[in-house]
Amino acid sequence: MAMREIRVMPDPVLRTPCDPITAIDERVRGLVADLLETVDHEGRAGLAANQIGVGLRAFSWNIEGDIGYVLNPRVVELGDETQDGGEGCLSVPRLWYPTVRANFARVVGTDLDGNEVEVSGEGLMARCLQHECDHLDGKLYLDRLEREARKEAMRELRAGL
Is residue 41 annotated as involved in ligand binding? Predict the structure, then answer.
């Protein structure tokens, strides 16, 4: 288990869709341990495998003291009600922008024993589930911003703020 370095923009791994996990082996067990160790710090709500340089479909979360992980997650339900709160990303440091997300999300995947798991929640948990699944698809929250906010964020990124 190791605290891993977070990859930041413009690292191409962040824009590359992750591969499904086809076998639970020591590499995958080590990845999960690293994801859990790396997300277990103040101010970290979630962490996708590609954020630590691994192109496999796995992420961890740390929401209000609840820490967990899911392998091969897929969003199976989004609520009709939306939330428009501020969102940031460890891979896009120092930027924080209002981002519209569903207020409820449900994700299905597997655990390290190959058992199906379901993770769902509202508010911050829903935002986290959607944000991390986006990462695994090679997307960043910046892609979801309104046009003007996205232009401003890209200017800030280019300026190195």
Answer: no
